[in-house]
Amino acid sequence: MAQTPRKARPQGNSISPHFGTVHKGQNVAPRKDHYGYIPPARVAPTAEARGLFNWRPLQLVMLLLLVIPGYAAVKMVQNSGHFIEGALQVETDGATGTISGNQLTLDLPVQVYNGTQQVILGVTLWVDAYACAEPNSMLADCKKVLSTGVDFATNTAQKGSSKDSRQLTAGVPDDLPGRTVKVLSRVVNTDTDADLNKRQLEERVSNRKVDPDAP
């Protein structure tokens, strides 16, 4: 008796009867469950895609160990040109001013690089602002519209850097040569942890003179 030839098995991967997962290369109709519901099909992820999610904790730690020192090295190179051993470097680049109506507005950033052995608690700048006709006008042709001291709380550790900023407003007269503002500033005072300790000691001595039982 002749045997009935078997049907050729379709090429490719089979489809999951329970989850409806269609594997790559398979082109067959999804199978209904006993309720007549056809589960949504999902394409199986490729090996390349699975590899993106197979990072182990050790690999993540190694990546962080590479990234963090690299960032620190970049910052060190950027700051190395600003530090002066045994000295305090204060930069005020970026100071700007505008005149609107009869009001002057100054934006004063400050960057402190502490190359000393003390903590810099703050710096005081003396700021002069001039109203000029043009950006390249000589100061002799401009009019001074503000001259004041400005305190910045920096709290900069030894061999460290910090930044702070202030915004000042002031009234200006009507008779100005122009509305272009030039800002000049210079450091006139610094406050260190040694200065703070000295003030605290002097205060305790003064209190003892008034009250012998004072701490």
From TrEMBL:
<feature type="region of interest" description="Disordered">
    <location>
        <begin position="1"/>
        <end position="23"/>
    </location>
</feature>
<feature type="region of interest" description="Disordered">
    <location>
        <begin position="156"/>
        <end position="177"/>
    </location>
</feature>
<feature type="transmembrane region" description="Helical">
    <location>
        <begin position="57"/>
        <end position="74"/>
    </location>
</feature>
<keyword id="KW-0812">Transmembrane</keyword>
<keyword id="KW-1133">Transmembrane helix</keyword>
<keyword id="KW-0472">Membrane</keyword>
<protein>
    <submittedName>
        <fullName>Uncharacterized protein</fullName>
    </submittedName>
</protein>
<feature type="region of interest" description="Disordered">
    <location>
        <begin position="195"/>
        <end position="215"/>
    </location>
</feature>
